[in-house]
Amino acid sequence: MTTAAETRLPIDWVTISFIGAIHLGALLAFVPGMTNWSAVGVMLFLHWVTAGLGITLGFHRLVTHRSFQTPKWLEYFLVLCGTLACQGGPIDWVGLHRIHHMHSDQAGDPHDSNRGFWWSHLGWMFHHIPADADVEKYTKDINTDLVYLFMHSWMLAIQVAFGLLLLAIGGWPWVIWGIFVRLVLVYHCTWLVNSATHQFGYRSHDSGDRSTNCWWVAVLSYGEGWHNNHHAYPHSARHGLRWWEIDATWMTVWLLQKLGLATKVRLVNESS
What we know:
Protein name: Stearoyl-CoA 9-desaturase
Largest sheet: none
Strand content: under 5%
Subcellular location: Membrane
Keywords: Fatty acid biosynthesis, Fatty acid metabolism, Iron, Lipid biosynthesis, Lipid metabolism, Membrane, Oxidoreductase, Transmembrane, Transmembrane helix
Order of helices and strands: HHHHHHHHHHHHH
Number of strands: 0
Structural class: mainly alpha
Helix content: 55-70%
Distance between the termini: 37 Å
EC number: 1.14.19.1
Radius of gyration: 18 Å
Family: Belongs to the fatty acid desaturase type 2 family.
Number of helices: 13
């Protein structure tokens, strides 16, 4: 249901058109000859690279919350992976997520779950929201970095160049599955963290908002579904706190730590 507050916000036709085009492009997978096992395999691998390494590990736990540190070259690589998820440039993504934590499920939250599942999942992106104007204030640590600025400004060009690479290697099936189908799946897996994990599941902590722990979102989003844990301890690199709360991204951080590529790893007793 659309609220009066939503109808007063200007419509973002550029974002609506872009997201619509990506979903329409994914339907080309049903065209004869546009599907093969190698294309599906590329999609699954790139889902992990862009959603797992890029969004979850890079944009979220590393850059937004600084729950651990890496060498700068690795940080830039992870941010590039996140940029390939085409969820807006890294500066906007990080800024809006920091604003979400400042005002979770309150006025000022970009995807306030009190407005309903649709709003928090997707509807908020269809409008120019007040939080857009505050991104610069919340990203002073990255918004003058030339590498971040390049990936932020040239996100679409990077995606097109990547698509041409896939076309050269595997033809149109790799483009359809590696770009369009992948992006649709990455989008909705990521968006479920904003919507489903503020609606369904259980709560382990009083985090001052509606965040929940939802196991099936954790499966789809590499551990991000343990969202109530995360909102209780936002600077912890580990979201799955109980032994059975499987957190694939924490396993990656742990491995990087063992390899000497992740340092100053923050956990619950250091981040409360």
